[in-house]
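User: Please predict the structure of the protein below. I'd like the answer in structure-token form so I can feed it into my own downstream comparison script.

Assistant: Understood. Taking the following sequence of 252 residues as input:
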Amino acid sequence: MLGLDFPADSSIVAYTARERPDLWEVARSSFAGVWPEYNLHANDSAKYFGTLFARHAHLQVLFFDRATETVVARGRTIPFRWDGSLEDLPTGIDAVGLRAVDDSRSPTALSALAAEVAMDRQGQGLSRLIIQAMAEVARQAGLAPLVAPVRPSWKDRYPLTPIDRYAYWKRDDDLPFDPWLRVHSRLGATIMRTEPKSMRIEAPTTDWELWTGMRFPDEGEYVFPFGLSPLVVKDGVGSYWEPNVWMLHDMT
């Protein structure tokens, strides 16, 4: 069981998937609606997300509410080889996942992949605790630092703004404008680099119409619900790159 700073009256406890493999199975159906439908169809994500429990169960985090006997949050991570330089930092979430799968060398760092909170438990501060739990399993495994290809939560409101501008927008208190970037920042994380081509989703236009509830009657660029950047439609295929912001939790 992971020791985290839950409120004294909380009924939530944190485990790794190695400690509670039964909860990992339960969690597969606990986060419906957390991600936009299109986000579930990335071209390369199954290659690395599919390895997490089989290879790295000790690095996957589960929050279990003993009062309701439900999994209320989950943190998924992957270890990878990194020399600590910007030059060696993978180009995004696909690149870090594929490096982790294909590189036979021992990993030296841990990358967050997803922090998920059940829809009915959002807004209760659990996302911050997921990041802390990820950092804790990184420490336990000797995989500091923790890095994260962060998916900005308000970027879909500004899909035409380049990620390298959006990521550096600030509030009056000098904290990041974006709420999810702000959570990481308050925990001490710093931006290393923005990545406009982090996760690839390319599929027939008919699939995109099903996922988005829109029609794409002509070739060109389209903004669509929950998209962080435009969809490019050409020759019956919709091509989309999800942008991310690389953030570093140093932990030294």
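That's the full token string. Strands lie at 12-16, 61-65, 70-80, 109-117, 146-150, 190-204, 220-222, 231-234, 237-249.
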